[in-house]
Every structure is written in C-alpha cells, then in structure tokens.
Write a structure and sequence with these properties.
- The protein has 251 residues and is of the alpha+beta class.
- It has 5 helices and 12 strands.
- 20% of the residues lie in helices and 33% in strands.
C-alpha cells in the first residue's frame, strides 16, 4: 500500500469510500481473486531520489534520530539517509563527534551510496571536507626520516606525533640498535626524536617508524663516506667524523 509506511493499519493510508488509483498486479481466475497495488501507481521514492541526487551530490536535512550507529537525516517526507558514526568527522572518533548533534538540527551531507533495492541511503558529513590525513600523507613517504614528538610511553613502545595530523608508533624493538637502549621509559613525553618511516597504514591512519633503522642507515652512510675499518680507520673514527659532519650541518 505504501513505499515508506511499513506495517501500519490500512486506515492510516486510505479512508472508507475514498477513491484511489491502483495497479492490477495479478489475476487468479481459479480463486476469483485480483491482487492490486496502491504504491505501484507512484514512483519508487528511492529511485526518484537517486535520479535527483546521484552519489557525490550534497543534500541538506533535519536530524530525525540519533542512534548508537549514527545520525538519521530526513531527506523527503518519509525518506531518511544515514550518516554512519565513522563518517561524521575526520579528526574525532565517532562517539565524540556525534555529541555535537541533536534532533531538529539542520545539517549538510554528501551522498555516498544509494541502494534502491534495500531502500538505504548512506550519507557522510566529513566527506564535505578534504581528508587532512591524505593531505599530510602526500608530504611523507616510506623510508623518509622525520622528526617526531613523543606523545605517550607504553610498555611495548612509544606513540609519536609527526605533525598536527599524522601520528605513529615506534615498537620497543625499533627504539634503538642497542638492545640495552630498547626501553620505552628512557624517553619522555614532549621529547623530539628522529625516526624513519617504515609503513603508512591508510586504513588505521597511522605511521610505523623506526629509530633503530635510522641509526643503522646512518652508520652505513658513514662507513661509505668516511671509510671502512678495512681501510685502517677505526669504527670510532668513522662514526666520530659522521657526527661532527652532522653537527656542522645542523649549526
């Protein structure tokens, strides 16, 4: 009887003696029965919405409901679109970002997907803006050495921040080439460390880094630039020359 009103009493859709247009759906001669459809004489509202608002367009509507999954936005008299918790904000967890919304608030959102068969419309609020992680990520690459700030000390490593958006983690085994220095507690929150990027996890929006790898790479470069122990130079001489060169460059 209706595209949008499910499991309701017919009296809430039509009234006695009311004239209506219907579509003949089936004729069963043996049972002397004719099946009619009321909703079929009207356009499928989800098909109509898909034509008028294809994926990628921006829509505006009122917050009709807030659930543990996200926001339901009114798009037509009887059609809602859902903003999943993960599509509310780029910066904040969904559980936090959803607190900024209340019923009746008018919001804008981007159409992400329309499933006419399942009668579902997926929306996104954060997609109205560029992903800050993607922008920051484009400025770094795997194998690059970056300066980080320690943000947290854990038993299995340290958490670091590369810039205002990018964060990462350095596992305990990657804190130093020397096993005795692979102790997270030797670092302090706010301390700056140089580390090499070993992986960029776009899904988790996090970097994996290594101090150990950076140290080993610097040693390798020092050996190539200032000589090897086979040439008569001691390892201390080689590394000392490399350290002096680095200090001069930083000055």
């Amino acid at each position: 009887m209706s595209w949008t009103k499910k499991n309701v009493h017919p009296g809430k859709i039509v009234a006695t003696s009311q004239e209506v247009d219907v579509l003949v759906l089936d004729v069963d001669s043996s049972k002397r029965r004719i099946s009619l459809g009321l909703k079929q004489v009207q356009r499928n509202p989800w098909e109509q919405f898909a034509e008028e608002h294809p994926v990628g367009t921006t829509v505006e509507g009122e917050v009709r409901n807030i659930t543990e999954f996200g926001l339901f936005i009114g798009l037509a008299p009887d059609i809602d679109g859902m903003v999943h918790m993960s599509d509310i904000s780029w910066d904040e967890p969904g559980e936090t970002a959803i607190n900024a919304y209340e019923k009746g608030k008018i919001v804008s959102a981007r159409v992400l997907d329309i499933d006419v068969e399942k009668e579902r419309i997926s929306l996104g609020v954060k997609q109205l803006q560029e992903d800050p992680f993607a922008e920051s990520m484009s400025r770094v690459k795997k194998g690059e050495v970056v300066t980080c700030i320690v943000t947290a000390i854990q038993a299995n490593g340290i958490e670091v921040k590369v810039d205002d958006v990018l964060s990462g983690f350095i596992r305990r085994a990657e804190l130093s080439r020397e096993k005795s220095d692979q102790r997270p507690d030797r670092f302090a929150v706010g301390e700056k460390v140089d580390a090499k990027i070993t992986a960029i996890d776009r899904a988790a929006r996090k970097l994996s880094l290594t101090i150990k790898g950076r140290e080993m790479e610097e040693d390798k470069q020092a050996m190539a630039e200032f000589g090897t122990t086979d040439s008569g130079a001691s390892l201390g001489d080689i590394l000392g020359a490399a350290i002096r060169r680095r200090n001069q460059q930083s000055e």
